[in-house]
Specification:
The protein has about 725 residues and is mostly beta strands. The protein is built from 5 helices and 41 strands. It has one domain: Maltoporin, Chain A (Beta Barrel).
C-alpha cells in the first residue's frame, strides 16, 4: 500500500500552483461587463448565499446551469468542485462527492430526500433535467435540520420557483451524438402572481441517446493472452418531467404551498457482444435487449404560519413513490450462429414513502434564532426479480435468494439548533439531531428480521466575518451512511461453499456507518461579488465501515461471503476555487474560472489490520475554464476542461480479491450564445469533445492468494452537440 500525502505530492502542488496563478472556478458568477450579479433568487445571488450561509456550501445559479445546454442535473454537477461520476464515461447519473462511492453522497430536491430506485439508496441524477432547476447547493457540512445521510456531502437541487412577474418561456432544441440520431427536446415555463395566488407550470419533454464501445482482454496468470470481447451498447431515452408549484396567501400570517413533481423515463437498451478465443477466432456472441420504465412522483404540501415578532411555524406532508420496471432478454450463441441459451429477466422495484414534518423558528432577542423540528417518515421498499434460462428447449428458474425482498423502515427524527450572534462579525450555530430507525425485512424465503438503531448527530458551525469581504468558517459534524438494501436482506445463496466460490449471505444486523467530520475554510469576495477565492480543508473519521468479508463457518464447514461492520476509514482533502473578472486588466467581459480538490483516504479492516484505498478514489479532480462576453455582438462563449486523476480500488468480488486501476479521464466542453434584444437567445454547445474513456486494468486473485488472471477493459463514449433556441415573453 503506497502512502499518499495531500500536501507533499509534487504533482498536486504543481496543479495547485497553476490554478493559483492563472485560473479560477467553474461555478463562478456569469461573466458580466459591469461586474454586477446576474441571477438572483429572493434578494440573494449565488455568491451572496454562499457568503452568508452559517455552514460551508457552494452555490451555482440558473445562468451557470444553462451555460452548456446540459440535458440532466448530472451533466451540470460534473464541473463542480470535487464532483465526479461512476459508471460509463459520459453517463452522469451516480454522483460521487470527494471521491467516495455513490452511497456516501446525499441528493435532496428542495431540501427533501427523494427515492431513486438504487440499491445503495442513491438518486440517479440523469432522471432530473437541467431545465427544471433554478440553483444547486453543494453542502459540505450539514446543519442539524438536515438529514444526516451525507458523509461525503449533500447535493440540494432547488427547482424553479414562482416568479414575481408574469413569465412565459419556450426552449426548443436538439442533440446529436457522433454516429447517432438527432434527439429533440422542448421546455415550457409559465407562471406569475394573481392577487393572493402564485403559480408556476414547468414542463419538459426530451429524448436522449448514449452510446459506448467496450473492449475487454483477459490474460492468464503467466501473462499470455487469453480470451477477449468487443461490445457496443446503445441507450435511447424518452422522458417527460413536470414540476409545477402553487401558493396561496390565506392571510397576512398564513401561506399554503403545494409542489407536485413527476419524472417519467422510458429507456431502450441494445447491446451486442462478440467473444473471441486466444487465437482470435469467434468463441461466442451475445445479443441483449432491455426495456426499462422509471417513474418518480411526489406531492409536497406545506402550511406556514407567522406569529409573534416574525416567528414562524410550518407543517409539511410529503407523499412520494419511485418505481422501476425492467424486462431483459439475452440470447447467447456458441461460435457465431449456434444458439446456446436464452436468459430472461423481469424486475420490479418500488419505493413508497410518506413523511410528516413540523418545524418552528423563534427569534429570541437580537442574538438567537432557535430552530426546532420533528419528522416522521414511513418507507417501504419492494424488489422482485424473476430470472429464467432456456437451453435445449428446457426452461429453468435462475432467480437468486436476494432477488425478492420487502423492507419497511420507520424513522423518527428530532433536531434543535441555535444561530447565535456572538457579535456583529461572529455567528455560532450549535445543534443536535437525533435519528431513530426501526427496520423490518422479509426475504424471498419468508425469513423475517427486525432491527432498531439510533444515531445522535451533534454539529457546531462557526462563522467569522473577518472583513466585509472575507469569511472564516469552521465546522464539526456527525453524519451517517445507511446499509445497502440488498445487504440487509436475510438470505443465503448457495454457491460451491469453497474459498474461490463461497456462499453469499445478507446481514440484517448491519448498522449505519457513522463519521465525525471537520471543515475549516476561508473565502474572499471581490469586484462587487462578481469574483471570489476560497480554500477549504476537510477530514472525515468513519466508524463501523461496511466491508465484504469471506469467512469459514465451522458448523457447516463452508465459506461464506457476507457484508459486516468490520472497518474504519479516514478521508482528508483540500478544496480550492477561484473566479476572477478580468475587466480591470483590460480584458473586458472575460472571466477565468477553476477549482481543484486534492483527496487522500484509506480503509482499515479492524480484524486483520489490512489497509485499502476507497473504491476508485482519485488523488485530485480539477476544472479549468473561462467565459467571455462580447457586448458589441451580444455574444458570449466559453470552455470548461475537467480532469480526474488515476484511481485504484481493492475489494472482494464473488469471493475473490480484485485489484483495479483506472487511468486518468479528461472532458472538454464548449459553448457559444447569441442574445437578441427581445430576450430570446440561440445557444450551441459541444460536450465531451475528447470522447472520454474508462481505461481499467484488473488483477484477480484466487482464494489462496495466487493470481487467477489479468483483465484490461476499455470503454469509450461519444461527443454530443446541442443546439437550442429560447424565447421569453
Amino acid at each position: 500500500m503506497k502512502t499518499r500525502s495531500t500536501i507533499t505530492n509534487p504533482k498536486k502542488l504543481a496543479v495547485l500552483s497553476l490554478l493559483c496563478s492563472t485560473y479560477l472556478p467553474v461555478y463562478a458568477e456569469e461573466a458580466i461587463t459591469k461586474l454586477e450579479a446576474v441571477t438572483s433568487y429572493g434578494e440573494q445571488t449565488a455568491l451572496q448565499q454562499r457568503q452568508q450561509s452559517p455552514n460551508s456550501i457552494v452555490v451555482i445559479d440558473q445562468a451557470q446551469i444553462e451555460r452548456f445546454n446540459d440535458a440532466t442535473a448530472g451533466d451540470v454537477l460534473r464541473r463542480l468542485p470535487g464532483v465526479l461520476f461512476g459508471g460509463a464515461p459520459g453517463e452522469n447519473k451516480d454522483v460521487r462527492i470527494r471521491g467516495l462511492d455513490k452511497e456516501y453522497s446525499q441528493v435532496l430536491i428542495n431540501g427533501r430526500r427523494i427515492p431513486g430506485g438504487g440499491e445503495k439508496r442513491e438518486f440517479q441524477l440523469d432522471q432530473l433535467p437541467a431545465q427544471l432547476i433554478e440553483r444547486i447547493e453543494v453542502i459540505r457540512a450539514p446543519t442539524a435540520d438536515m438529514d444526516a445521510q451525507g458523509i461525503a456531502g449533500t447535493i440540494n437541487i432547488i427547482l424553479k420557483t414562482i416568479p414575481s412577474e408574469p413569465l412565459f418561456s419556450i426552449t426548443a432544441g436538439a442533440s446529436l451524438l457522433k454516429d447517432g440520431d438527432i434527439k429533440p427536446n422542448i421546455n415550457l415555463t409559465y407562471g406569475g402572481q394573481e392577487d393572493d395566488f402564485g403559480y408556476l407550470l414547468n414542463l419538459n419533454v426530451q429524448q436522449r441517446q448514449l452510446t459506448k464501445n467496450k473492449t475487454k482482454q483477459s490474460f492468464k496468470a503467466d501473462g499470455s493472452a487469453d480470451k477477449s470481447e468487443t461490445e457496443h451498447e446503445d441507450k435511447q431515452f424518452d422522458e417527460l418531467q413536470f414540476a409545477p408549484s402553487f401558493s396561496w396567501t390565506l392571510s397576512d400570517k398564513d401561506q399554503l404551498s403545494i409542489e407536485p413533481l413527476l419524472l417519467v423515463s422510458d429507456e431502450d437498451k441494445t447491446k451486442d457482444k462478440l467473444k473471441f478465443k486466444s487465437d482470435g477466432s469467434i468463441d461466442g456472441k451475445e445479443l441483449e435487449q432491455e426495456e426499462k420504465q422509471r417513474l418518480n412522483w411526489a406531492l409536497y404540501g406545506q402550511w406556514q404560519h407567522q406569529y409573534g415578532s416574525g416567528n414562524e411555524f410550518s407543517l409539511g406532508i410529503n407523499l412520494q413513490e419511485s418505481k422501476e420496471d425492467k424486462e431483459k432478454v439475452k440470447t447467447a450463441y456458441k461460435g457465431e450462429d449456434n444458439l446456446d441459451k436464452i436468459e430472461n429477466e423481469i424486475e420490479d422495484k418500488s419505493d413508497q414513502e410518506w413523511a410528516l414534518t413540523l418545524k418552528n423558528k423563534n427569534y429570541i432577542g437580537e442574538q438567537h434564532t432557535l430552530v426546532t423540528g420533528i419528522e416522521f417518515i414511513d418507507k417501504e421498499r419492494n424488489k422482485n426479480k424473476i430470472r429464467t434460462e432456456t437451453k435445449k428447449g428446457e426452461t429453468k428458474p435462475k432467480s437468486e435468494a436476494k432477488d425478492k425482498y420487502n423492507i419497511n423502515e420507520q424513522r423518527f427524527n428530532a433536531y434543535i439548533l441555535d444561530e447565535y450572534s456572538l457579535s456583529e462579525r461572529q455567528l455560532l450555530t450549535p445543534g443536535i439531531r437525533f435519528e431513530w430507525t426501526d427496520t423490518r425485512v422479509t426475504s424471498s424465503s419468508e425469513t423475517n428480521s427486525t432491527s432498531t438503531d439510533s444515531f445522535w448527530s451533534p454539529s457546531l458551525h462557526y462563522l467569522f466575518n473577518w472583513t466585509e469581504a472575507t469569511n472564516i468558517r469552521a465546522s464539526i459534524t456527525n453524519t451517517a451512511r445507511r446499509p445497502k438494501f440488498d445487504d440487509m436482506a436475510p438470505y443465503v445463496e448457495s454457491k460451491d461453499g469453497t474459498l474461490d466460490k463461497p456462499d453469499k449471505a445478507g446481514n440484517p444486523d448491519l448498522i449505519p456507518e457513522t463519521a465525525t467530520g471537520f471543515d475549516v475554510g476561508i473565502d474572499h469576495y471581490f469586484a462587487k461579488q462578481a469574483g471570489n477565492i476560497g480554500l477549504n480543508v476537510f477530514y472525515r473519521d468513519i466508524d463501523d465501515k461496511i466491508e465484504t468479508r469471506v469467512t469459514f463457518d465451522s458448523t457447516t464447514e463452508r465459506y461464506q461471503e457476507t457484508p459486516e461492520n468490520v472497518g474504519s476509514a479516514r478521508l482528508k482533502g483540500i478544496e480550492f476555487d477561484m473566479s476572477f473578472n478580468m475587466n480591470s486588466y483590460g480584458l473586458e467581459g472575460l472571466t477565468l474560472s477553476g477549482n481543484v480538490t486534492f483527496l487522500d483516504g484509506e480503509i482499515t479492516d479492524q480484524l486483520t489490520g489490512k489497509k485499502t484505498p476507497f473504491k476508485e478514489q482519485p488523488d485530485y479532480v480539477y476544472n479549468l475554464g473561462f467565459d467571455h462576453q462580447i457586448p458589441s455582438l451580444s455574444v458570449s462563449w466559453g470552455m470548461n476542461f475537467n480532469q480526474i486523476s488515476a484511481r485504484e480500488s481493492d475489494e472482494i468480488k464473488d469471493g475473490k480479491q480484485t485489484l483495479e486501476s483506472l487511468a486518468m479521464q479528461k472532458y472538454l466542453d464548449l459553448y457559444i450564445k447569441k442574445s437578441f434584444a427581445n430576450g430570446s437567445e440561440i445557444r450551441l454547445s459541444a460536450q465531451n469533445l475528447l470522447e472520454a474513456n474508462t481505461d481499467k486494468n484488473k488483477t484477480i486473485f484466487k482464494g489462496d492468494g495466487n493470481i487467477d488472471k489479468f483483465e484490461h477493459d476499455l470503454e469509450q463514449s461519444s461527443r454530443i452537440i446541442y443546439l437550442s433556441f429560447t424565447g421569453r415573453w
